[in-house]
């Protein structure tokens, strides 16, 4: 037996269990600071939300050394109980059912299909029913000696669940140890079926789910989904997914609830920040990149399985209302063919990319609110059966499987069969479960009790063959992920993987690319180095929190630390310019459909924003989680910037001209509530009439795809170098023969830039840099001048 024995590791890493909105900038500057009118956590949990763990320090004590790893053939077996390792034909295997024999389902040499068939044949109905449930599983930080899961865990042991949802935010080593301990408990049970730990996205700012923050020991930190859409950088999004997959894999989280393929066609909807905007093809391209990045070209041992949501598209809403609530249960399609022409396109793309599973939405298609969608009618007088998509066989079995070619499994949304069984509310629970399963739902979310599924079979409502079909689909994913061979991970390696600097460097590039410049009167931006000594910048944050002064002070500290050249003030009377950051919130859990920036979205003092704008030229930055109605805060702004979960440093690089903004709007910003009311709501905003999009004071309309860049950016950079060089010559910091050497190179660079040859212009900036750094010239250039000009010239070469 060749044992891969991991060295025992003792970690003094302190895990800080973070609250949602800590008093640092880590969260509050990228995510609106508090939810307006949020329900109690207990109420929100019923909607699929679990609050983050309270903030106490927990010393990490590793339990990794009790696991065993065995090399055999071309695989590595991971097992807690080494007594359950058996041999056959010179190879090692895990005796998962403890019968002392090699069963086909334990034989890693056999095809997955054969192994699944054998395992299903050994499972009891209760075990099958338990496998068909998925629900939240909590880490227990109150145990001692590094234990986070009790040995007799109810969900794993008593209820037989093997799909769990991990919703809280812990450090990577803690998460890895937690998932290991879940697997240890599962390994001890009859048949030894492993656990698939699932999570919502964890690499972005979020106010509704895992509340991820940008701190060490977490994940690499990327812009939100809308920010990714704003970059249009599909290749970078795939690279993000590949990096994130490595991080998740290292922690033992093997399935992601995401991403959202819904289109942002109704600007009132509260979940727009989870989408990639309003354009079907852009969403399809982004979703394809994410599937290929997380899963790979094919699902395998290094993959993170994806559950894309919410089929057949959740963006077509009735007055923006979300179907987490009864008043939002209907999907309207008032435009003929809009369902297939727009909303289905991203789902077809992920099916073609090989997505492992799909999640239908709670809602049902409305007959009264829909035009003909070109699908077979449910009956002579009804286009659709008005039951939630989880129960809708015409959509799951006929459209999705038969027409669109989907081969994976269906994962219901949380509570779709229990608390939000729209259209079937009056049916007994067992009949609702039967309707969902017979309609094609394989995994039921928000339910932990296997009994309702057992009852569907015992009462003759569902055949056991159909149960076997669902279980086989789920086990196929488990086997393909390699979990039966080795579900265990190294907690210390998890920390190393999530803290790789190169990953965050790539994320930071995408952060910069996500920033959208929407207005720039009189070229107030960028704040150039040449003028920075004459600028006194007033800074103020406008959030939904009750501590905006503290948040503003934190922002000022961060800016001053990042940019030592800028002079800031908290006194508007002293200012020459102002920077305000407005972060409204449309609270999903309140089904809030208000998108006017004001009290309804948590910004209580819009008049103060206007006062600042009317006093000094003001850079107004808006956190665009939704297509806010901007009239009140745009008209008097000198510059307007849209952000989508951006890091403050990336935003500041745009403000200071270190990065030329390239982002474009991922959705159309409506002109008014009247425009929204007159719009269709089920088609992209750019297809609405000419009056639909907001027109700013510079006569630019904010259609999908709008975004400004700095005019003559290349010239701006070269001018900066020219002016700084002249200043250092005038001050005597540069003297002697190097003066002519540097100025000649700058003249040549300017000449070629004027002719449109950026390549040749760059060549002469390189020559400038060589002269600057030549040892023979060192006595003619002060250290300060050399360092400053080297930074500027190197920046030009990088940006050009």
TrEMBL record:
The Glycoside hydrolase family 3 C-terminal domain, residue ranges: 515-710
Known EC number: 3.2.1.21
GO molecular function list: beta-glucosidase activity
GO terms for biological process, alphabetical: glucan catabolic process
Catalytic activity line of the entry: Hydrolysis of terminal, non-reducing beta-D-glucosyl residues with release of beta-D-glucose
Pfam families documented for this protein: FIMAH (PF22888), Glyco_hydro_3 (PF00933), Glyco_hydro_3_C (PF01915)
Gene3D superfamilies: Glycoside hydrolase family 3 C-terminal domain, Glycoside hydrolase, family 3, N-terminal domain
InterPro entries per the UniProt record, alphabetical: Cellulose_Degrad_GH3 (IPR051915), FIMAH_dom (IPR054470), GH (IPR017853), Glyco_hydro_3_C (IPR002772), Glyco_hydro_3_C_sf (IPR036881), Glyco_hydro_3_N (IPR001764), Glyco_hydro_3_N_sf (IPR036962)
Top-level EC class: hydrolase
Domain Glycoside hydrolase family 3 N-terminal: 168-476
Family membership noted in the UniProt record: Belongs to the glycosyl hydrolase 3 family.
Protein name: beta-glucosidase
Lineage summary: Bacteria, Bacillati, Bacillota, Bacilli, Bacillales
Gene: bglX
């Amino acid at each position: 037996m060749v044992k891969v024995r991991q060295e025992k590791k003792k970690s003094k890493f302190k895990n800080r269990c973070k609250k949602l909105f800590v008093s640092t900038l880590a969260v509050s500057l990228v995510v609106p600071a508090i939810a307006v009118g949020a329900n109690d956590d207990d109420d929100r949990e019923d909607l699929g939300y679990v609050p983050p763990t309270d903030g106490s320090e927990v010393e990490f004590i590793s339990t990794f050394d009790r696991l065993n790893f065995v090399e055999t053939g071309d695989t590595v077996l991971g097992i807690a109980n080494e007594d359950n390792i058996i041999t056959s034909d010179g190879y090692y295997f895990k005796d998962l059912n403890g019968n002392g024999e090699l069963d086909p389902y334990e034989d890693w040499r056999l095809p997955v299909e054969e192994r699944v068939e054998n395992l299903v044949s050994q499972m009891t109905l209760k075990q099958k029913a338990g496998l068909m449930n998925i629900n939240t599983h909590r880490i227990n930080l109150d145990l001692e000696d590094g234990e986070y899961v009790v040995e007799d865990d109810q969900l794993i042991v008593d209820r037989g669940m093997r799909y769990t949802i991990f919703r809280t935010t812990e450090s990577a080593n803690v998460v890895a140890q937690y998932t290991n301990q879940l697997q240890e408990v599962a390994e001890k049970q009859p048949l030894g079926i492993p656990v698939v730990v699932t999570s919502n996205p964890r690499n972005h700012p979020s106010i509704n789910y895992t509340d991820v923050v940008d701190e060490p020991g977490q994940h690499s930190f990327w812009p939100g989904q809308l920010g990714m859409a704003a970059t249009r950088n599909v290749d970078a999004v795939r690279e993000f997914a590949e990096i994130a997959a490595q991080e998740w894999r290292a922690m033992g989280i093997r399935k992601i609830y995401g991403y959202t393929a819904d289109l942002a066609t109704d600007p009132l909807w509260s979940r727009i920040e989870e989408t990639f905007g309003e354009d079907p093809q852009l969403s399809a391209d982004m979703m394809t990149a994410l599937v290929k990045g997380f899963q790979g070209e094919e699902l395998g041992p290094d993959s993170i399985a994806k559950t894309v949501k919410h089929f057949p598209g959740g963006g077509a809403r009735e007055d923006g209302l979300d179907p987490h609530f009864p008043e939002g249960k209907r999907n309207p399609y008032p435009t003929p063919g809009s369902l297939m022409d727009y909303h289905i396109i991203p789902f077809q793309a992920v099916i073609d990319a090989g997505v492992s599973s799909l999640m239908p939405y709670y809602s049902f298609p409305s007959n009264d609110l829909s035009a003909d969608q070109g699908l077979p009618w449910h009956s002579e007088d009804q286009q659709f059966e008005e039951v939630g998509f989880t129960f809708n066989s015409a959509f799951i079995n006929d459209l999705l499987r038969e027409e669109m070619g989907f081969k994976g499994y269906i994962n219901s949304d949380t509570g779709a069969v229990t608390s939000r069984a729209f259209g079937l509310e009056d049916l007994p629970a067992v009949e609702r479960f039967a309707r969902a399963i017979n309609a094609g739902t394989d995994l039921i979310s928000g339910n932990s009790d296997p009994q309702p599924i057992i009852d569907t079979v015992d009462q003759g409502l569902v055949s056991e063959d159909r149960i076997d079909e669902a279980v086989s689909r789920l086990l196929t994913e488990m086997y393909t992920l390699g979990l039966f061979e080795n579900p265990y991970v190294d907690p210390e390696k998890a920390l190393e993987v999530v803290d790789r600097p190169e990953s965050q460097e790539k994320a930071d590039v995408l952060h910069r690319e996500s920033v959208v410049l929407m207005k720039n009167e009189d070229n107030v931006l960028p704040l150039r180095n040449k003028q920075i000594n004459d600028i006194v910048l007033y800074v103020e944050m406008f959030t939904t929190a009750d501590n905006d002064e503290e948040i503003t002070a934190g922002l000022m500290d961060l800016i001053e630390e990042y940019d030592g050249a800028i002079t800031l003030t908290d006194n508007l009377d002293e200012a020459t310019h102002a920077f305000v950051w407005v972060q409204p919130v449309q609270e999903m859990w309140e089904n809030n459909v208000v998108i006017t920036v004001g009290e309804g979205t948590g910004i209580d003092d819009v008049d103060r924003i206007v006062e600042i704008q009317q006093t000094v030229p003001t850079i107004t930055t808006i956190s665009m989680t939704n297509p806010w109605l901007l009239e009140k805060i745009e008209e008097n702004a000198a510059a307007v910037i849209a952000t989508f979960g951006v890091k403050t440093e990336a935003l500041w690089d745009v403000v200071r001209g270190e990065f030329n903004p390239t982002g474009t709007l991922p959705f159309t910003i409506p002109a008014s509530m009247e425009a929204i009311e007159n719009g269709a709501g089920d088609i992209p905003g750019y297809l609405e009439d000419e009056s639909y999009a907001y027109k700013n004071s510079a006569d630019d309309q904010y259609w999908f795809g709008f975004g400004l860049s700095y005019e003559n950016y290349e010239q701006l950079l070269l001018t900066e170098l020219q002016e700084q060089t002249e200043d250092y010559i005038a001050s005597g910091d540069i003297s002697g023969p190097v003066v002519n050497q540097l100025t000649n190179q700058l003249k040549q660079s300017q000449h070629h830039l004027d002719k449109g040859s950026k390549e040749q212009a760059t060549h002469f900036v390189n020559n400038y840099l060589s002269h600057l750094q030549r040892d023979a010239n060192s006595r003619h250039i002060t250290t300060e001048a050399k360092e400053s000009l080297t930074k500027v010239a190197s920046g030009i070469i990088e940006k050009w």
